[in-house]
């Protein structure tokens, strides 16, 4: 085997891609040829470098857990979407049947009231795209998952001042950009507790001030420990807290108890 | 039916997370050089896989399918991040070694740092995709030449040639040498074909 032949086979030999016989010939050649030996060592040193870089760099301990949490979150969202479609279809069927049964009045019916164009009703939003929701009402939201983006990244995408949220013992594991059918944009940042559990996750919706509203009269106004005024109440089985801060409406929704949510938000930096 | 399918999908993708998340993190880190971004892009990969699970053909090579998603997710990040590696297509007269050096650093400064692995990491992050992909699929993912060739839709000979050129260029960068005049810096036929087919930055 000459140098030219050997050099062509150095890479495959280092990658265990050669048959034993050819590998032995390459090994025999480099043991006698300094030039080819040097090229062989170059390949090995690049490999050793990559191994060394990766040995010093590891994903976080809860990396797998967080990915699986994100999948869980996504699955819940797709369940809600499915249920939304199902219920909307069922409701539409019932409505059509009702209309058909009352056909003498059909032509004279007043159209169903249209939701306000100026605000997104939190109940509809959460029921349509949130998880742990109690039932869908408004399916007209498009959710685009954008990964674990921080506030500044999100702000650059949506064009309004997205607040940086830091909740004690919680970590951000994913964000969505949500668009309504009438062109409004908001963001959802999803937080998991640091133990990786998604059972007590907190969704934080943000929109420009005045865009989020709560319909329920059962909401009550409170003043948080940090002096901010907020509305607190329940959306289905979940606690909800809405406040306005620095040009954004911020809505927290979570299955955790209201008191715990208030405490977390009050101490949020 | 929907819920059964969803449960199967979740179980399958969770299995993939356990099997491949670390490997994908390594791949992404070598391309992006940022821990947070590498984790983020891997999470995005699995979420996208979960969402488009219906397009995965059962029994086919899930790893190759996931790598395609990962490659696109990395591409998205690179597009968004101005500080990320600047991908560019290799032109006829480009010199591969020169493409890998951060243009903001003078050769003296680079030499004075004497951190070969830092240089190596920078070099890999700046490798054009059709050189980085075979190198990392081989070194990080331990794929065979045939699997890499199948995945990249190029002949095995092209994989060998690209691996050889990438390794040579990276070694020269690490050691500050540029001794081998045999390093062919012209793009191979397959890369031209690939670029016209997929664009320069895609896997």
Could you please describe the fold and organization of this structure?
The complex is a heterodimer of chains A (269) and B (203). Chain A has 269 residues and is of the alpha+beta class. Chain A has 2 domains: 3-55; 63-106 and 119-266, Phosphorylase Kinase, domain 1. In chain A, 43% of the residues lie in helices and 24% in strands. Chain A contains 8 helices and 10 strands. In chain A, the strands form 2 sheets. Chain A has an 8-stranded antiparallel β-sheet. In chain A, strands 1-6 form a two-stranded parallel sheet. In chain A, a hairpin with a 2-residue loop joins strand 8 (229-235) and strand 9 (238-245). In chain A, helix 1 crosses helix 2 (20-32) and helix 2 (20-32) packs across helix 3. The longest helix of chain A is centred in the N-terminal third of the chain and has 39 residues, at 63-101. The radius of gyration of chain A is 29 Å and the shape is elongated. Chain A starts with a helix and ends with a helix. Residues 104-117 and 132-137 of chain A have low confidence and may be disordered. With 203 residues, chain B is an all-alpha fold. Chain B has 2 domains: 2-80, Rna Polymerase Sigma Factor, Chain: A, CATH 1.10.1740; 96-198, Winged helix-like DNA-binding domain superfamily/Winged helix DNA-binding domain (Arc Repressor Mutant, subunit A, Orthogonal Bundle), CATH 1.10.10.10. Chain B contains 10 helices and no strands. Chain B has helices spanning 2-32, 35-51, 62-80, 96-100, 107-113, 116-126, 129-139, 145-152, 156-175, 189-198. Chain B is globular. The two termini of chain B are 35 Å apart. The A-B interface holds A 11-12, 15, 17, 42-43, 45-47, 49-50, 52-54, 57, 59-60, 63-64, 66-68, 70-72, 74-75, 78-79, 82, 145, 147-149, 153, 173-174 and B 2-3, 6, 9-10, 13-14, 17-18, 21-22, 25-26, 29-30, 35-36, 38-44, 46-48, 50-51, 80, 116-117, 120-121, 124, 138-140, 144-145, 160, 163-164, 167-168, 170-171, 174.
